[in-house]
Design brief:
It is a single chain. The chain is mainly alpha-helical. It has one domain: Alpha-Beta Complex (Eukaryotic RPB6 RNA polymerase subunit). 50% of the residues lie in helices and 0% in strands. The radius of gyration is 11 Å and the shape is elongated.
Length: 54
């Protein structure tokens, strides 16, 4: 479970990577990097993780 801030950071970072021609981890339904990042996140295929302090 991610907070809304973590989700926003993950989606923003991944959309930026995709905009710079990083290969998507899903078959994109759209060409917009933000929509591709959202699709990856919803399918659980985002290659980013959150490290929290304990």
């Amino acid at each position: 479970m991610y907070t809304k801030y973590e989700k926003a950071r993950i989606l923003g970072a991944r959309a930026f990577q995709i905009a710079l021609n990083a290969p998507p981890n899903v078959k994109p339904k759209d060409v917009d990097p933000v929509n591709v990042a959202i699709q990856e996140f919803e399918e659980g295929k985002t290659p980013l993780e959150v490290k929290r302090k304990r």
